[in-house]
Amino acid sequence: MKNLYRYSFLLSVVGLLTACSLFAPKAKLKKNTVVLAEEIKPKLVLQDTVTMPFEKDFFEDWEEEAENLQEVDLDELYASFENVPDEDLPVFSDEEIERQVNNLSGSINIHYNPEIKSYINKLTSKRGRKFVSKMLGLSQLYFPIFDQIFVEEGLSQLYFPIFDQIFIEEGVPKELKYAAVVESALLPNIMSRAGAVGLWQFMRGTGRMYDLQVGYTVDERCDMYKSTRAAARYMRNLYATYGDWLLVLAAYNCGPGNVNKAMTRSGGTDFWGIYDKLPKETRRHIPKFIATYYAFHYHKDLMIAPIRDMVKYTQLRRVRVDKPIHLGQVATVLNLQEKDLAKLNRNFLCGYIPAKKKPYKLILPANEASLFDAYQDSIYAHNRSAYFSKNGKFIAKRKDFYPIYGALGAGKPIVYRVRRGDVLGKIARRFGTSVRNIKNWNGLRSDRIRIGQKLRVYTSAKYSRNYKPTKATPKSTAKNIKLPYLPNKYVYHTVKKGENCWTIAKKYEGITQQKIVELNQLANPQALRIGQKLRIKEKN
Question: Residue-wise pLDDT tens for the chain (540 aa)?
Fold first, then answer.
């Protein structure tokens, strides 16, 4: 019984110690610093934990001690990662990596397996580390590595990263932001081979379902704010169907239809249960996502530092635009580079903001955003004749630093008229582009084209220099004369549906299209009639 009382007393002492630590005031640390854990343990843990709470000046001593802890500047920490020999880079055992991966599990149910391990190995290889370093650098614009708390006049202001803030508002786990790294490598103007565009790789139809404008002047799939909100809503709706975030990512990648088929064929109810029945790309997609999450979460342990100065502006603000305007006008008045402004506003494909019938949001560096509010009238009026005609029509030429994506392409636009023998692949090679681009630029759903069809193609001066548009040959109104039918003297061919002089000539050895025209005295070779008898050659 005495032992029980002693044990109860010890528990109460430990509880009192815990309570004291919870209510102890937090020390103020410098901005952009981290405290090394190993510097804390020798000073706080290795003391007499029973007598410490009863010391008279405990709180004062703890606060002073915390202020004296070694602080490491993040820039210095990352600088120490540079030029580290390969043999000195950290190497974790399979058991350690498994523990680290399983510790990531939270809202998203994550368990370590060989597929995840293979992609972690790729990202932690010499080449993979460079990719992660670049993504860490780009992420400073979209989701800063550390949430920063700024204290001003006693008020704490928490600046949420763009992705984190929107995901929280939409009720989606913040960890899903790493899917954007896998989807687009954080490039807002990227287009996939399937025609998906932007950070979140929306197809045209899906984007419009979630209120994203897709057209020749504006493609909101490239708007970092609107596309992120659309992606969060899409994921939330998918979660209402599947109840599993890995299945949500799978459906986001290959479509709900493919996930439903895989569930039916396998009988599984989670991602790994239907893994073998999913498309090959999706089977790779989820392990890539988990490996990316791992690399970002443990980047300091892996000694991977973000590439510096990849992002010029990290503090951004959106302003309302109520009238048609061009980014060039805004850049000049606010003393910004138009190229930098274009990078922040990829959704305006030519730099033109068509705010006639509805307002748009323009993304600006935070400092310049307040100037925009103050000098709106000057910005709208600045050099307006260079961008708009007297009746308000946009007339400025598109500049080269507005890159290819969405409905428009890079380079000089030309109109190409399809000729006999043309296929999309041949046209794409001629102008240094791809079949997918030509189909997107012209709204084609298949590879079928017809002679005389006009195609809009964007190409560089290198390819367009020698191109001369062909004028459509006017249809002849001349009529073919009827020649006497002489079967004893000539070999004849009866014209069938879809045939012309060229296809008929190919059926007879030594016969050309020109010979058929001359032998039949055809004034209008295009006016052949089904059933018409054509002379092919004289009989011997």
Answer: 444 444 444 434 434 444 443 333 333 333 333 333 233 233 323 333 232 232 333 233 323 333 333 333 444 544 555 555 666 567 788 888 888 888 887 788 888 888 888 888 888 787 787 787 777 776 666 654 223 222 222 222 222 357 777 887 888 888 888 888 888 888 787 777 667 888 898 988 899 999 999 887 899 999 988 998 999 999 999 999 999 999 999 999 999 999 999 999 999 989 999 999 999 889 999 999 998 888 888 877 777 777 766 667 778 889 999 999 999 999 999 999 999 899 889 899 889 999 888 999 999 998 898 899 888 889 999 989 899 988 888 888 878 777 655 444 445 678 888 988 899 988 888 887 888 778 877 777 788 898 888 888 877 666 666 666 655 555 556 778 888 888 888 999 999 988 888 889 988 988 888 899 889 888 888 888 888 999 999 887
Question: Which of the 8 DSSP states describes residue 161?
Answer: -
Structural domains present in the chain: 2-74 (no CATH), 89-311 (1.10.530.10), 319-386 (no CATH), 412-464 (3.10.350.10), 490-538 (3.10.350.10)
In degrees and rounded to multiples of 5, residue 490 shows phi and psi of -125, 150
Q: How many CA atoms lie within 13 A of 353 on its CB side?
A: 25
Residue 454, Cβ density class (10 Å: 0-12 exposed, 13-18 middle, ≥19 buried):
exposed
Query: Encoding tokens for residue 53?
Result: 């709470």
Residue 429 Cα distances to 442, 460, 520, angstroms? 17, 13, 39
Confirm if 461 and 412 have CB atoms less than 8 A apart.
yes
Q: Which residues pair with 286 in a beta bridge?
A: none
| Cβ contact 183:175 at 8 Å | no
If one counts every other C-beta atom within 10 angstroms of the C-beta of residue 120, the result is 24
Q: Report whether 232 contacts 368 (CB < 8 A).
A: no
Residues 6+ apart with CB under 8 A from 224: 141, 142, 162, 188, 199, 346, 363
Give start and end residues of each alpha helix (H) in 24-69. Answer: 37-44, 58-67
Rg for the chain, CA atoms, rounded:
34
Helix or strand holding residue 288 (H, E): helix 280-297
Q: CB under 8 Å to 92, separation ≥6 — which residues?
A: 100
Containing 126, the helix (H) or strand (E) segment is helix 126-142
174 close to 164: Cβ distance less than 8 angstroms: yes
Any idea how long the chain is? Answer: 540
Q: Which residues contact 176 (CB under 8 A, 6 or more apart)?
A: 108, 167, 232, 235, 245, 248, 249
